[in-house]
Specification:
CATH superfamily of the largest domain: Spore Coat Polysaccharide Biosynthesis Protein SpsA, Chain A
Number of strands: 7
Shape: elongated
Number of helices: 11
Radius of gyration: 24 Å
Strand content: 5-15%
Number of domains: 2
Helix content: 40-55%
Largest sheet: 7 strands, mixed
CATH topology of the largest domain: Spore Coat Polysaccharide Biosynthesis Protein SpsA, Chain A
Order of helices and strands: EHEHEHEHEHHEHHEHHH
Distance between the termini: 13 Å
Length: 305
Amino acid sequence: MENKKIAILIPCYNESQTIEKVVKDYKNSFPTADIYVYDNNSTDGTGEIAKKAGAIVKKEFAQGKGNVIRSMFKDIEADCYIMTDGDDTYPPKTEMVDLILKNEAEMVIGDRLSSTYFQENKRPFHNFGNILVRSLINNLFKVNVTDIMTGSRAFSYTFVKTFPVISQGFEIETEMTIHAAANNLRMVELPVEYRDRPDGSLSKLNTYSDGIKVLGTIARLFKEYKPMVFFGSFSLISLIISVLMFIPVFIEYFQTGLVPKFPTLIVAGFILIISILLFMVGLILEVIVKKNRQIFEMFYIRTKR
């Protein structure tokens, strides 16, 4: 394990107040690790401060945390990757490295919600959003993850090189969790102490717009990873509507031998056709998803170190 390469990944945008402390803290905890700070168009000298503190600083001009993570995962080669934020909210957790290098997990999640998050965080809507997202993902993907949106994580080489980054912004953590859940990649959670940002350090997360993006990401990935359930649900709803519209027409025909409500019958028929089409779309996509999982599994095995 002493010969293993460890990379600390710190995506940053205007974190001049805290980045020096973050780099030094991680340098003390992981003295042999390479610390990478990707400066995402900062205007307050974050990159220069990080470089003076001993970090390897690179630029990412496409705005958004997801874009930064995409570049990090593409550029950096390591046996273990530790991701943290540049706002000094997560202290280093050396146990993460042990779990990755011992092949006990593909992704280690720094669980804030079981620790000090609800005491330290001063934004109640963020608390509500974390609970909502956790409930949705755990129920939709049949997993049991406490902290979905934490920025404190560790990854294996295999996870990093097989994870297709689609999200551009703060939805990236949600996408990582769903990817691991959908592909049966082992996740392990470790409680981490959470510290709220110091005075004068401003969060870049917009509670409402970024919250909507996260919910949209969940819906998109649910459709892509579980198309039979997604389209099958709409198919069932359409079928129920069609049957409810047809029953009065059928009863009247049974009693009188007449069909005076032809428009209702026609609409019920069209909705039934839509129901059948939705079911077939879900069935076809489910076969494609299963094939993609088989391809992913083969690629995953080849990438495994």
